């Protein structure tokens, strides 16, 4: 099923504190337990709610323990408004947007899944409003990011081209990422394409404000970035699942192991044959997430 299929969810809109119209998908399977915290999914730097479509269907339609799942488009991504002030594409502002979503949907606690930048946002929320975090899944991200992985992201954002059609989009993504994802099937690359691109006037376009990529490409990586261990420690009250892509260049094995060592209610799993960031519906990863959330 393509991530842009309009099935299994209700479209929701809400306002940021500075007035942007932001988008979310609200998945509620039959019998979803109202007394269980919902699951809120936060995507990566240039990604959007469609990344989580397959996982959201799995979790919301679980035969024994269906959960409400909300997947968010951060400002400037997907169907959320682009910000006229490009300086607002920051972790702090986007963390505030997550708090706005929780307020709009009357959520006082949730299990959060954060992929890449989404996981960094959760580090900030752990300090801003720790009581929101009933449980946390960090998908290939942690308090220390490896420069090699950041340079790799800069490289493919700087060299990306506009695909001619959906087949070309899938092929382009395969050329860029196959070394880290050697076992993905053709349907996986097509699904990734539908999560990343959208049709605009009959042509495909990357579904995010170009200013986001431009800022990442311009980031000076010659000096070490500050770590987030202090913020990570602020989520120590919440059960934690760390997912690391076996071929990840962004989250090192050493950092992942240190995260589990420092957190008394944490476990680490490896997404085999995947890099940054693992597709969460493949192989045993979705099963591990489902079990963690029980």
Could you characterize what this model shows?
The protein has a domain at 10-146 and 227-293: Rossmann fold, CATH 3.40.50.1820. 34% of the residues lie in helices and 19% in strands. It has helices at residues 53-60, 91-104, 117-128, 147-158, 166-177, 186-196, 210-217, 229-233, 253-262, 285-293, and strands at residues 10-15, 21-27, 39-42, 69-73, 110-115, 133-139, 197-200, 203-206, 240-245, 266-271. Helix 2 packs across helix 3 (117-128) and helix 4 (147-158) packs across helix 7.
Q: What class, by secondary structure content?
A: alpha/beta
CATH C-level of the domain at 10-146 and 227-293: Alpha Beta
**Which fold name fills CATH's third level, the topology of the domain at 10-146 and 227-293?**
Rossmann fold
Major sheet, described briefly? 8 strands, mixed
Tally the helices: what do you get? Answer: 10
Terminal-residue CA separation? 25 Å
Encode the helix/strand succession as letters.
EEEHEHEHEHHHEEHHEHEH
Number of strands: 10
User: What is the strand content?
Assistant: 15-25%
So what's the overall shape?
globular
Strand order of the largest sheet: 1-2-4-3-5-6-9-10
Low-pLDDT sequence parts? none
Mean of residue pLDDT values: 94
Q: Quick one: CATH superfamily of the domain at 10-146 and 227-293?
A: Alpha/Beta hydrolase fold, catalytic domain
Could you estimate the helical fraction of the residues in percent? 25-40%
- As a whole number of angstroms, the C-alpha radius of gyration is 18 Å
CATH architecture of the domain at 10-146 and 227-293: 3-Layer(aba) Sandwich
């Amino acid at each position: 099923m393509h991530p842009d299929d309009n099935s299994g969810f209700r479209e929701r809109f809400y306002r940021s504190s500075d007035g942007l119209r932001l988008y979310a998908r609200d998945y509620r399977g039959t019998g979803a337990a109202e007394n269980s915290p919902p699951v809120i999914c936060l995507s990566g730097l240039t990604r959007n709610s469609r990344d989580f479509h397959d996982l959201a269907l799995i979790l919301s339609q679980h035969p024994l323990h269906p959960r409400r799942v909300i997947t968010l488009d951060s400002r400037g991504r997907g169907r959320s408004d682009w910000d006229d002030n490009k300086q607002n594409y920051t972790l702090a502002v986007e963390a505030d947007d997550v708090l706005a979503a929780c307020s709009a949907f009357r959520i006082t606690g949730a299990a959060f899944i954060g992929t890449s930048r989404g996981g960094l946002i959760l580090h900030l929320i752990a300090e801003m409003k720790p009581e929101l975090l009933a449980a946390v899944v960090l998908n290939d991200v942690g308090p220390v990011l490896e420069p090699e992985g950041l340079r790799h992201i800069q490289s493919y954002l700087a060299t990306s081209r506009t695909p001619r059609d959906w087949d070309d989009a899938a092929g382009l993504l395969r050329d860029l990422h196959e070394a880290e994802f050697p076992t993905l099937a053709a349907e996986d690359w097509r699904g990734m394409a539908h999560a990343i691109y959208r049709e605009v006037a009959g042509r495909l376009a990357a579904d995010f404000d170009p200013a986001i990529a431009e800022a990442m490409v311009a980031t000076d990586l010659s000096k070490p970035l500050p770590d987030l261990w202090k913020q990570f420690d602020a989520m120590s009250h919440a059960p934690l699942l760390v997912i690391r892509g076996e071929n990840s260049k962004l989250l090192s094995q050493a950092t992942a192991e240190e995260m589990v060592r420092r957190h008394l209610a944490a476990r680490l799993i490896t997404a085999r044959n995947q890099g940054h960031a693992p597709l969460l519906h493949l192989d045993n990863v979705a099963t591990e997430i489902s079990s963690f959330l029980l």
